[in-house]
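Researcher: Next entry: Glycosyltransferase (Mucilaginibacter agri).
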Amino acid sequence: MRISVVMTTYNGAKYLEQQILSILNQTLKPVEIIVCDDRSTDGTVAILEKYQQQQRLKYFINEERLGYVRNFKKAVSLASPENYVALSDQDDEWLPEKLEKSAALLQCINDSSIPCMVHTDLFWVNADGSLINPSFRNERGQQHYELNLESLMFNSFVSGCTTLFNPELARRFADFPDDISYHDVWMALVSLTFGKAEHLAESLVRYRKHDNNASVSGDVKPKSRYKALFKQILVAIKDRSHFMRSEFNTVRKFYLLYKDQMSADKKHLFKRFLNLQHKPYIFKKLAYRKMIRKHSLKK
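Model: Predicted structure:
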């Protein structure tokens, strides 16, 4: 399997070299590393220049700031079109077997005619690399239910930096809207609606939490039931319509763009979820709990 690693950078000099080395030290070597820099003003470009001269890394500096999603879209478009693609953030660290294990799983499900992807769990670490939780899925409270299209609508479970996907999904990257918040949930929606996506329940990336993260979500689970209850009460009091607002916006945008291409059962699933959008907070919360019970792994 020929793999292109695609990375975007912006003022990421502090951790960038560590991540590049973890990619170069993979047991399954990528054939190319494509980096798009969004006009960094720190030492990022100097690090990229160093590794371009020494290794199979190619970097491109944007003529203007593109932002997180548009920068990834550009970077994916620069990868060799026949290659499989693995996305990389600038501030993480991959375990040596990350690509090898992901590729083995992807080969089991791959169909070149449809978008296919695999994604893994992560170690969640702080800025100095100390472990916060050995499972980011557990940190987000997602370990108790199946990861499928319906559960994705309620709570995204895909981190882009863990993904490996086939050329067909890479080709579809160009169609992603520029104004979506995150590309990874959109990738998952495309794969689970029109193709295949599989989760590898093993942490293969050290996912760093620090002040400048572009993608660490704020919805990790609170540390106690009391904090969780307090958080829910605050949401209900301050703004009942805020609950899952981002999820509804993303799913609605996806549905409007692709509904004519969906099968009847997928279209029904999207409509049922979107019908919750203007319901009271308690209805949304009950629907979320119902989804967890429906797809529970404790049956």
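Model: Note for the record: The radius of gyration is 19 Å.
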